[in-house]
Design a protein that fits this description.
Blueprint (H helix, E strand, L loop, with lengths): L1 E4 L5 H9 L3 E4 H4 L6 H11 L2 E4 L2 H8 L7 E3 L6 H20 L3 E3 L1
Helix pairs in contact: 1-5
Length: 106
């Protein structure tokens, strides 16, 4: 699977996904810093990337009822380790079919 990591996501999430063998692209690396959410969503849709963000409100609105790509909304946890564990559990449970074209919460 291929993921687009928003700027508000901790670097530990990035590392966990990479260690799990996933392809990870950071918004800051491909679109620069402070990129508008609309541009992030369009980039993800054009490149078949699943967006990982903590920005619940804006991205839920952009995704709408039938997302053109996958969206994972990260819920802040007490520890980064817990955030990473919950995300990796979601990936294992949902698989690519459950993530692509769907909205998931971790």
């Amino acid at each position: 699977m291929k993921f687009l990591i928003d700027e508000d996501v901790a670097v530990e999430i990035d590392r966990s996904l990479r260690q799990a063998g996933q392809t990870v692209v950071r918004v800051a690396d491909v679109l620069g810093f402070r990129t508008d959410d609309v541009d992030i969503w369009e980039y993800a849709c054009q490149h078949g990337l699943i967006v990982v963000t903590c920005n619940r409100g804006d991205f839920l609105e952009l995704a709408g009822g039938t997302p053109a790509t996958g969206l994972i909304i990260l819920n802040r946890r007490r520890t980064r380790q817990s955030e990473c564990s919950n995300l990796l559990r979601l990936l294992a449970k949902a698989g690519e079919a459950g993530l692509c074209g769907n909205i998931n919460f971790s």
